[in-house]
Amino acid sequence: MNELGFPILSLMMAVPMAGAIACLYAGASGARLIALVATLVNLALGILLWLNFDQGAGHAQWQFQEYAPIFGRFAWAMGIDGIALTLIALTVFLMPICILASWDSIEERVGEYMAAFLFMETLMIGVFAAQDLFLFYIFFEAGLIPMYLIIGIWGGVNRIYASYKFFLYTLLGSVLMLIAMLWMAREAGSTDIPTLMAYNFDPHAQTWLWLAFFASFAVKMPMWPVHTWLPDAHVQAPTAGSVILAGVLLKMGGYGFIRFSLPMFPEASAQFAWLVFALSMVAVVYTSLVALVQSDMKKLIAYSSVAHMAIVTVGLFAFNQAGIEGAMMVMLGHGLVSGALFLCVGVIYDRLHTREIDRYGGLSINMPKYALLFMLFTMAAVGLPGTSNFVGEFLALMGVYEASSWVALVCTTGIILGAAYMLYLYRRICFGDQKNADAAAMPDLTARELAMLVPIGLSVLWMGVYPESFLSPMRADVQALVARIAPAKPEGDAKLTAGKPQPVAAHGAHEGGHKAEEVHATAGEAH
Amino acid sequence: MLDTASLILALPELVLTAAGLILLMIAAYAGDTSAKMIGWLGVVALGVAAWALCPAWTQGGDAFGGLYRGDAFGAFAKGLIYLAAAVCILIAPRFFEAGGANGARAIRAEYPILILFACVGMGMMVSAGDMLTLYVGLELNSLAAYVLASFMRQDGRSAEAGLKYFVLGALASGILLYGISLLYGFTGSTSYAGIAAAMADGLSHGETFGLVFVLAGLAFKISAVPFHMWTPDVYEGAPTPVTAFFASAPKVAAMGLTVRVAMEAMGSAASSWQQIVVFVALASILFGAVAAIGQTNIKRLLAYSSINNVGFALIGLAAGTAEGVAAVMSYLAIYVVMTIGSFLCVLQMRDSQGNPVEDIASLAGLSQSRKGLAAAFAIFMFSLAGIPPLMGFWAKFLVFDAAVAAGMTGLAAFGIAMSVVGAFYYLKIIKTVYFDEPAAEYAPAGSRMESALIAVSAALIVLGYLFNPLLDTMSAAAAAALH
Asked: Where is the NADH:quinone oxidoreductase/Mrp antiporter transmembrane domain (chain A) (predicted)?
């Protein structure tokens, strides 16, 4: 079965599912407790999973595999590699925090709310662990149901519009992917994802297949110009909904690119890299500028998510180790940081019930602990060295610099613009005069809120200071991916070449020595 | 003349006919008070008939000189028909007994008997091996259905539904008969095998006309666009248990009939009817989705939903392969469960006096007063919209898979993109149930059997994937029986 002797992935899906069913029948306080216990048990299982994941040299790519052909046309096939492992870890880490974030702020229909969240956790783990094409699709799509209900029932004023937009947008993106999957399963004669990752599809067919998958993942990611559902969904969703949406659901798009688009259609990926780059460049600059003028905190962070996800896509399509590892690190870092930022918004929203930036000000005076943590997450969002996002953004941009220096140039402005809108946001909320009396009277973080934010803060620092813990499980998998897509790799514009040292004696001694110095210098640059 | 083998193959129809006649006599003497007992006896008869499907399922073969064919395909369809009919008999008494504006309306004893006779007709439809058997079966079913549609005589809408159904049904029958007569004239045969043999060496103009008219007539019966216009009015006007019946059993029968005619009688002219089926499928999907958006009456909405679903099922037929046929049969099986479940939920919609309500707006906030019913509604609507992990997704998956396998990727892509439009109005119901402020509360559930039936069908929709291997095997066996 696997290294542990029990089907841990299925168990990690069963625990929240059982919790969800129990929550439906429990009272409000019971449901809260059940949900917290279920997510904490899953967190423990996630830690167990990480510890038992073999990262040694020459380890198997797919671990903890399970296989049960119980569905006829497709199978219950589970298994993870390092990439999936880190994303599952992110999911189980954020879930208890989401439950805590909803502890007091959700007062109506608590049982159903907790059930929806736990069901969501089951599906998210399923997406990352599924090794069967159709099983993946089912989990991927099913996630729409709980999220639709979470936004629609517990959302803000304009929640119905947002829930429809979220549902229909992502559904339209995904259905075309299903047709492509049906075709692929026919062509390759298998629904097994590892088999398909090694199957060479006809390059002409790859074009269409890639576009079908792109339709789905670009919406999920979201990439400009199909990102418009995200600000609506984020603003209207309850805090925990935003956290899970930004923290995990957006990562499904990036995971899809890594798991499907790149290894299954390398030629088409190379062919369309320009498209991804172009959309991402627009996204970085445009959405950052849009974020700059927002007056709603959640909307600002939502737009910044689009900009950060654009860094992920350029990194992925850089076709090299640094780019893809960087993209993964941005996804993990952004999952933590944007989640934390939404929690920070939620904390003050719970006190004042408004997301207008102008209604706050000077919070560092009356809420010093809050201001400190918010500062940490602001800096992380900016990509300050020592925080998680720096590692990812640096690697991703370094990777893309090799592919195209222009793309790197444009995308790097995103860091500057990111600093602008984040610091501007922080200044308006935490610094300055306490111009609003009600905001000045807000109490500082409670123990529950500290319990939510401090673990994320520590992880952000850990990831920034010692990223090796997170890079090492995925390194071999990224290497395998890079090797897989290497034959299709488009030529970059950097064209780094080693210099050719010439024998000194061939020319005059004085002239030759000068040239040799030049050669050494170029060779040094090339390294 | 009459051989035992034929009689054994036709045993389900014989059982139902005999049961119908006997129950009619009982009803004549015992009166309407015996309606419930007759209903239960009718369910027993349907069970016996289902058991009598075994010889056809295991052996299969022609009966009565090729007029009738008892095979796995027919048995599969009949199993679904009997199941749907049994549920529609069981849910009727309470609906008719509920005190209405016109005073007490007790169920009449003829109701279960009419359904039994309709089942005989539907059994003939799916088992026909000859155009004439087909026609007789179709008319037997239709006659019973016309009466059922206008079963609440004192209700204007019900009478209107019956009349409309009758007039348009007669028109459809005329078109069908005209097509049959053309085919007979140009091929010299009314048997499927004879028609197929004559069409094998190219279609003559006359045969093409015959084919088009037959398909048009059948499109009426399955309510596919552009011959769908009777559906919303009839579904809205007919009593709800009857609507549930119309949306399930006769749909299966007419689809089964269409598949058999297309594959067996016209199998050699597949390229000719495929274009028609593709058009009808896409038009039904598109129209069923778009026209449903503005509806405020839940029964009308479900009528458009059934048009939409017929379109999806036809995509499997358009593929024209055995796999496509298997996909259609699986689709129908899942569709029957979803539809009956939805109508069972609609039956629960009663105001505090117990009068049936059909307004979608009255569902507002149902999730706060009746959690279980709201969850069931959500399950059926998400399933009809084709969202995994519910079975409605699997139904669509199978037909699209068959279309892709047959090289019709464009058709599949268009069809599935249109399913997103359809998702919109299903979401509207879920939105009303879950997001809106509560409206006036419904009367409490009252009937334990209806609640149990809802629970069973919801469970099937949620956990149905576990039965996938069984469904695959059975539908493949059914498809393999066609030749």
From this structure: 130-415
